[in-house]
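Progress note, project year one: complex with flavin mononucleotide.
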Amino acid sequence: MAEQTGAKGSAGSAAERSGDQGGVFGRVPLVERPAVDPEAFKAVMASFAASVTVITTVDAGGQPHALTATAFTSLSKRPPLCLVCVDQRARAHAVIRRERRFAVNILNQDQAELSAHFATSLDDKFDGVEWAAGEVTGCPLLPGALAWMECRLFAEHAGGDHDIFIGELVKTGASAGAPLVYFRGAYAELSES
Ligand SMILES: Cc1cc2nc3c(=O)[nH]c(=O)nc-3n(C[C@H](O)[C@H](O)[C@H](O)COP(=O)(O)O)c2cc1C
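Model obtained:
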């Protein structure tokens, strides 16, 4: 019988399949890789355009906490999961771990001020900010956000100086509009054409 070929039948790594034996995208041993320092990391990640979110949570005493975050993505359809990477030093970090709940607010393009506000270290970030408690989790939802999702903490994983919080979506909402985008250290809007 003729040997089966094609994408489904082939085995091995992408590098093996492509015949790549080294070089920039090849299998260079870890120890030989040049170190990427935090500034170089920051500089290269600046080329990754990301939609801006505000991650909120609420502590046992009903006090809301939040931070601006772009390290957010969808993860799974069944069950519906998303993830956000949160700095271990962020004040909301411990609250999310303890209370096992958070909400993601995807900001609208006219909410750059809110993004900057929630990225500051103000003591009470919700002083003077309009918000509503999510029906299921009680986590703050920001009026005017492009979309929001209430999440129960599903799992957490370590990732260097951040932790990855995986949330299971328990209630969501969305409205018309366009997203606030962060690109090369500045806020941007999606262009129409
Ligand atoms: C555009 C933007 C994106 C950010 N993305 C993240 C992120 O994904 N994860 C994170 O932990 N901090 C992120 N930060 C930083 C936090 O918002 C900031 O450190 C915040 O002040 C932390 O909250 P705290 O001061 O209450 O601890 C981002 C800041 C900005 C301006």
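Helices lie at 14-18, 38-45, 91-99, 112-118.
The first strand starts at residue 50 and ends at 51.
No further modelling is planned for this target in the current period.
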